[in-house]
UniProtKB/TrEMBL annotation:
Function: Antitoxin component of a type II toxin-antitoxin (TA) system.
NCBIfam families, A to Z: phd_fam
Origin organism lineage: Bacteria, Pseudomonadati, Pseudomonadota, Alphaproteobacteria, Rickettsiales
Name recorded for this polypeptide: Antitoxin
Pfam families, alphabetized: PhdYeFM_antitox
Family stated for the protein in its record: Belongs to the phD/YefM antitoxin family.
Length: 82
């Protein structure tokens, strides 16, 4: 995650918005004597919110963890040629 100053963010805001949307990255904007903020695309923000919502349920979290472990171990997945 890139960190830039408030001044640089202000001077390059359009470019920063394009980059965070195109690259699915976040940019931290630092401010003097203030807490930093993060710029991210709405698409990435919504995905993060949905993930956090789903992980609130212990049952969902366990199911997701199991699915990831199975995928990484290549279990229960069949490859198909198109």
């Amino acid at each position: 995650m890139e960190a830039i100053s408030y001044t640089k963010a202000r001077n390059n805001f359009a470019d920063i918005m394009e980059r965070v949307c195109a690259d699915h990255t976040s940019v931290v904007v630092t401010r003097q004597k203030q807490k930093p903020v993060v710029i991210m695309s709405l698409e990435d923000y919504n995905a993060m919110e949905e993930t956090l919502y789903l992980l609130k349920s212990p049952k969902n979290a366990e199911r997701l963890k199991r699915a990831i472990n199975d995928f990484e171990a290549n279990k229960n997945f069949k490859t198909m040629s198109l």
